[in-house]
Design a protein that fits this description.
Structural class: alpha/beta
Number of helices: 28
Strand order of the largest sheet: 8-9-11-12-13-14-15-16
Number of domains: 3
Distance between the termini: 102 Å
Helix content: 55-70%
Strand content: 5-15%
Oligomer: single chain
């Protein structure tokens, strides 16, 4: 049960494991960092924002305190002005100007933000109106009462708008309550009680009973306010953290309480004795002064507490920001450390693997960790050590030819690169000799590969004996050898060396063949390419140039020495241009297909056409196959080129068979190169072209050379069977010039033999050519194969072929290869001629 639970639990983590499996380590750590740090940052930001919100609220409270304190002072001065207006009858409002200026200044700064500016303008107007009120003392008394009422309401409004009434701390809340409610009420009540006592003396008061009732109520307000203030001071003293606030509030309360007691006693005496004279004219002054002082101290203390609170909020915000920052930096530091602890060994391992891949088997991995990666490093080091031992044994095999023990192509490239570097520095002449045996294929094919191997070993020994100690002899492939000669005295010296090579390799060679020995001769063609340090050549360039020179030696009769010169260089460049233009020509539709008629000898009736490729070059004009087919074969472009020819020829023949009268039995013959034949896409291309053009498969004849068929007999058989399975006919082109083996004619599904034009050319004047043609015709009859003779140029050749039994021919005697319309004209002419001969 426990094991199953663990399995189920682990299955839940598979999606996460799959996700991380797609990520690189940097991305993995980034994802983890975001998952961990983003929530932390979000919570920290929320907390910091809360502290800043509290700071903003406390700042607003300070603005309220800033405005409330001068309003209380103004209220005290208004109370005093009222008292003067009642007792002295004079204009005492002028002294309020300073108070108004102070409040005006603060209102300009905070009034709009607190939303009290309008209330202040209304209260200010009342103050000015009261200060200029004339009439009786009672009139002035009522005018100032309206001012105090408005100021008390404004003080309450300031407390509400500045959030003072919602203050969360007890000490600051009670100080606010004292400042906003208690002290203003105490100021106003004390002043009114003294003013009411003074009003009867002015003969402007109401009935005595009303005065004493009011005085009694004032005394009650004073007593209740004293009690509330006592509780407030006690609460502030026990809750505040500031000893200065505690001491100041206590001393200010004691002073105010003493003054309030005296005023209360006077009010009690006046009410009991019903003598307003018991209340002195200045009885409220002490209370007013003490209340004003208390208000100033309370405002200062409240501001101090708010500043302390703001500082606390700011400190906590900074602490959280610093803590979060440090936590983030620590997390990043640890993540980076973790990342480096993982990636550094991984990169070391990767570097070692890449070095080993480049061949540096001495590389070892050293890691500083003690985790699983250290086990991987140890295992890799052990693997490297074992591989190094094995590789050292294989190194010689990898860089040397197994048969002759000579350096192979890979080592030749390396030696050439070193030689070219030395030549670059010394400016001394060096040469690459490209050697190709002339008749080696004949020996290999006739006597077998074992005999060929013996010849190659003898050739390798002769070359090694001829060269200097510092020179390199190598076998590239097959019967191709290379000699690298450095610090030559001149080009003539190189030519003499090459001629000695040709002479040495032309001497007979004794080999063991079957049960005895046999003497064979091969010979060689040599191409030379030079480098003198004047231009930077790559090893491949030098080998290519020497190969091109060797190829010219072959073309000029074999057994020769040729030097790669400017003429050859121009030819190579022309070949390169041809390759570039041909690739573009295939893409841009410059390939044209010409058609040469295939004629039945008995009635000289056209039975088909051979498709021959032409290239309509934009600047060089119409080019025949000799100008570009060889380049196409060497570069691999023969595959797309052949596909274009196949598609166009099949399309044209399908059109002729469908739309031209009497042509429904014509066939189209198309040459197939060896590279095209061996390409994996060849058979699918045939099938696709037949499907797209609608040409019947039996109308398509593919002509393949003997060499192409015999290069890889196993795969050739499969390809030929696949082609024949499509219904396409197969012909052997240039028969008699290659293997001419009865074995493959019996083995492969071949239906047609084409006699090479070299044998047809000698008919009527060369008995040997006539005998060869007769033999091929007889062979074809025996194997039930169709015979087509190529290159029929004269009437005599046609008659000879007909006499020898060759039923089908083609050549210039019946017309040259031509575009579709001109080729069709030859068909039409033949049809008209036959109609004339046979009659209506």
């Amino acid at each position: 049960m426990t094991s199953r639970a663990v399995t189920v639990a682990l299955a839940l983590f598979k999606p996460a494991a799959a996700l991380f499996g797609w990520l690189r380590y940097a991305q993995k750590f980034m994802v983890l960092g975001l998952v961990l740090l983003v929530p932390l940052g979000y919570v920290a930001k929320a907390y910091v924002d809360l502290q800043h919100s509290q700071i903003s609220s406390s700042v607003r409270e300070r603005q309220g305190v800033e405005l409330m304190a001068p309003l209380i002072v103004l209220t005290a001065d208004v109370v005093e002005a009222r008292h003067h207006a009642v007792t002295r009858g004079g204009d005492e409002g002028a002294g309020l100007a300073d108070d108004l200026a102070v409040v005006d200044d603060i209102d300009r700064r905070v009034g709009a933000e607190l939303g009290t500016a309008g209330d202040w303008r209304s209260a200010r107007a009342l103050v000015l109106a009261a200060a200029h009120t004339n009439g009786t003392a009672a009139d002035r008394y009522r005018a100032y009462n309206a001012v105090t009422d408005r100021l008390l309401a404004l003080i309450v409004r300031v407390g509400d708008e500045s959030n003072l009434t919602l203050d969360p701390n007890l000490d600051s809340y009670y100080l606010m309550d004292t400042l906003q409610f208690r002290l203003p009420v105490l100021l106003d009540t004390a002043g009114r009680s003294a003013d009411r006592a003074a009003l009867p003396a002015t003969d402007e008061a109401g009935g005595d009973t009303d005065v004493f009732i009011e005085l009694g109520l004032d005394n009650g307000v004073l007593a209740s306010t004293r009690k509330v203030l006592a509780r407030t001071v006690g609460t502030v003293s026990t809750t505040t953290t500031s000893p200065d606030v505690r001491a100041v509030i206590r001393s200010q309360f004691d002073r105010l309480d003493a003054a309030s007691v005296l005023l209360g006693d006077a009010l009690t005496t006046a009410v009991k004795s019903r003598q307003v004279s018991a209340i002195g004219t200045d009885a409220a002054d002490a209370v007013r002064a003490a209340a004003t002082s208390f208000a100033a101290s309370a405002a200062e203390a409240l501001d101090e507490l708010l500043l302390m609170r703001i500082d606390g909020y700011a400190t906590r915000a900074r602490q959280v920001e610093i803590g979060t920052g440090l936590a983030g930096l620590l997390a990043i530091y640890l993540f980076v450390g973790f990342y480096l602890s993982v990636t550094s060994p991984i990169w070391k391992i990767i570097g070692a693997l890449k070095a080993v891949a480049r061949g540096d088997l001495a590389r070892r991995v050293t890691v500083d960790t003690h985790d699983e990666l250290s086990f991987v490093a140890t295992a890799l080091n052990e693997t490297f050590s074992r591989t190094e031992v094995v590789t050292e044994r294989l190194a010689v095999q990898a860089t040397h030819d197994k048969l002759t023990s000579l350096p192979n192509r890979a080592l030749v490239i390396d030696r050439l690169e070193l030689a070219l570097s030395r030549t670059q520095r010394s400016r001394r002449l060096m040469a690459a000799f490209f050697i190709d045996l002339d008749r080696f294929k004949l020996i290999n094919d006739s006597l077998g590969h074992e005999a060929g191997d013996q010849v190659l070993c003898v050739i390798a020994g002769r070359l090694t004996d001829m060269v200097r100690a510092g020179d390199t002899v190598a076998r590239l492939a097959g019967d191709e050898f290379v000699v690298i000669g450095e610090e030559l005295a001149g080009a003539n010296m190189a030519v003499l060396v090459a001629e000695r090579i040709v002479t040495a390799l032309s001497r007979p060679i004794m080999i063991t063949c079957g049960t005895g020995e046999r003497e064979v001769s091969v010979g060689a063609s040599v191409g030379i390419a030079f480098a003198d340090g004047g231009s930077k050549l790559a090893p491949g360039d030098l080998l290519r140039d020497a190969d091109v020179a060797m190829y010219r030696a072959k073309q000029r009769g074999r057994g020769r020495v040729e030097i790669f010169d400017d003429a050859l260089r121009i030819a190579v460049e022309r070949r390169s241009e041809t390759l570039h233009d041909l690739r573009r020509g295939i893409e841009c539709g410059q390939i044209r297909v010409y058609y040469q008629p295939i004629v039945e000898t008995a009635f000289e009736r056209i039975v088909g056409f051979e498709a021959l490729v032409r290239w309509e070059h934009p600047t060089r004009g119409l080019l025949g196959p000799v100008e570009f087919v060889e380049v196409a074969e060497e570069s691999g472009l023969i595959v797309p080129l052949g596909a274009v020819v196949l598609a166009e020829a099949c399309r044209q023949m399908a059109e002729w068979r469908a739309n031209r009268p009497g042509c429904d039995q014509l066939h189209i013959a198309i040459n197939v190169s060896g590279a095209q034949f061996s390409h994996p896409s060849f058979v699918p291309t045939i099938s696709s072209v037949l499907a797209e053009t609608g040409l019947q498969p039996d109308a398509l004849w593919l002509e393949i050379t003997e060499t192409s068929i015999m290069e890889n007999a196993e795969s050739t058989g499969d390809t030929l069977e696949a082609i024949r399975a499509l219904g396409v006919h197969l012909a052997i082109d240039d028969f008699g010039t290659g293997y001419s083996s009865l074995a493959y004619l019996r083995r492969f599904p071949v239906e047609v033999l084409k006699i090479d034009r070299s044998f047809v050319d000698g008919l009527g004047r060369d008995r040997e050519d006539e005998a060869i043609v007769a033999m091929i015709v007889s062979l074809a009859r025996t194997l039930d194969l169709l015979i087509i003779a190529e290159g029929v140029e004269t009437r005599t050749q046609l008659e000879q072929l007909h006499r020898l039994g060759c039923t089908t021919v083609q050549g210039h005697h019946f017309g040259e290869a031509a575009p579709p319309e001109r080729a069709w004209d030859s068909v039409a002419r033949r049809q008209r001629a036959r109609a004339v001969l046979t009659g209506p």
